[in-house]
Design goal:
Layout lengths: L1 H11 L18 H15 L2 E5 L5 E5 L10 E6 L14 E3 L7 E4 L4 E3 L15 E3 L8 H19 L8 E6 L13 H4 L3 E7 L4 E3 L4 E10 L15 H11 L15 E9 L3 E10 L2 H21 L1 H4 L4 E9 L3 H4 L4 H12 L5 E2 L7 H7 L6 E3 L11 E3 H20 L4 H8 L1
Parallel strand pairs: 3-8, 3-9, 9-16, 10-15
Antiparallel strand pairs: 1-2, 2-8, 4-7, 5-6, 7-17, 10-16, 11-13, 11-14, 12-13
Length: 424
């Protein structure tokens, strides 16, 4: 266990926050600090064909140790952390034999991780938790996944009696800003299918995710002295407020679950003359996703029509950009790869939690790029904030799942249909 803790902490202490406003890949140079460290570590543990390209994609191979024709599989995680909350100077706390009570993350600022609010904590009584100190995120998303993949590869290298085919691994930059798969070389990776280790609670197994779009809207206004403003001033901030109020009530992240989609306002800033609004649109259902985008355009059109005479031009400028799509369409035709992961979990005593992702992973993009890629738990909770934590025992189980999937892939007699699916 200590080996896993030490490895994980060595990763999270490196600031790898990505930046959506940067045009480069990776979007921040500091991500390469961890990427290069991983290259050295992979070589040290005995991985082969270890490479890092100019964009920061780290790939490596665990060669097959069986003579049979076994499909090449892959495991993928990202090493950047979200720009939504700082990952600078992460100072992890280790809570051994968690007693089920409140965990004081930061006494000075009275920041407490409590099961009365985060009830999932009670699933891990008696286990070892790694938490933040209340001032940063932890970075288990997705450095827990990296820890698990590296440790699983190391374990199989040290235990050659475990039979496996060729395994490819990749660590990507910029997943948190939706660009993790942009420059992923699927052909170079060479796997027939893969798994992202990027889920949350132990047992999660996901092959459905949101369809996603990002929206950027500019509201224009006219500034006039407030004492003489009647019929003349147009306050862009109030128009933005009207736009937000026109969105369906109750369809926000905090009010939805499961397959329910939402509109989520992520940024709002402005003045009388100009206000900028950013939001994201999410829905599992393709038709509902399309209707959500159409609604945004309809609200825009309605406001522009209202102010057409007074303003003389469009007062609202709206740009919608699709980000990723539901991987279900690409995974269902090769559903045996999900069944394989489910079998691996059950064989080591884990109850699979098969459910849709209320978000996205590199895997959904990769699935549309020709690499079917379901998502498996990495163990962390409360990602993207100061209440993030990960049970070490969940990481241990994730490592065991990786090893078991590799073993099952090498020992399973695939049907003719599955063999054809593998080759596509």
């Amino acid at each position: 266990m200590q080996h896993i803790i030490d490895r994980f902490i060595s990763y999270v202490k490196i600031d790898t926050e990505s930046d959506a406003n940067s045009p480069t890949t990776p979007s921040t140079k500091k991500q390469l600090v961890l990427a290069k460290m991983l290259v050295a570590e992979l070589k040290q543990i005995g991985m082969k064909e270890v490479t890092i390209d100019k964009n920061g994609y780290v790939m490596a191979t665990l060669p097959s140790n069986v003579d049979a024709d076994v499909p090449t599989i892959g495991f993928v995680s990202h090493y950047d952390t979200t720009p939504d909350f700082t990952g600078l100077n992460v100072n992890p706390q280790i809570i051994k034999n968690y007693d089920g009570g409140d965990i004081v993350l930061n006494a000075a600022q009275k920041i407490v991780l409590s099961p009365s609010y985060f009830s999932d904590l009670l699933l891990y009584k008696g286990q070892t938790l790694i938490t933040t100190d209340g001032l940063t995120l932890l970075g288990a998303d997705d450095k827990a996944g990296i820890t698990e993949i590296v440790t699983a590869m190391e374990f199989m290298i040290q235990n050659p009696q475990i039979k496996h085919g060729k395994i490819r691994i990749c660590f990507t930059p910029d997943e948190e800003i939706g660009r993790g798969a942009d420059l992923f070389d699927v052909e170079k990776f060479g796997a027939q299918w893969a798994y992202t280790m990027d889920g949350s609670q132990i047992g999660e197994l996901e092959y459905e995710n949101f369809n996603a779009a990002g929206v950027k809207i500019t509201f224009k206004g006219k500034s006039v002295h407030p004492g003489y403003a009647k019929g003349k001033m147009i306050n862009s901030m109030l128009i933005a407020n009207d736009f937000i109020n026109a969105l369906p009530k109750g369809e926000t992240p905090q009010e939805t679950k499961g397959y329910e989609g939402f509109f989520h306002v992520t940024q709002l800033s402005g003045s009388i003359e100009e206000t900028k609004l950013e939001l994201i649109i999410r829905d599992h259902d393709a038709k509902k996703f399309k209707k959500r985008k159409e609604l945004v355009h309809a609200i825009t059109k309605k406001i522009n029509k209202k102010f057409a005479k007074q303003f003389g031009e469009d007062i609202v400028i709206c740009e919608i950009k699709d980000q990723y799509y539901n991987m279900k369409e690409k995974v269902v035709p090769v559903m045996f790869i999900v069944d394989l992961a489910e079998k691996a979990m059950k064989s080591i005593g884990i109850k699979p939690l098969i459910k849709p992702i209320r978000g996205g992973t590199d895997g959904c993009r990769l699935s549309y790029m020709g690499l079917p890629c379901p998502n498996i738990f990495a163990g962390g909770h409360n990602f993207h904030g100061k209440y993030e934590y990960v049970p070490v025992e969940s990481m241990q189980k994730a490592i065991a799942v990786i090893v078991k999937i590799a073993e099952l892939t090498a020992t399973t007699n695939f049907s003719e249909k599955e063999k054809k699916a593998k080759k596509k």
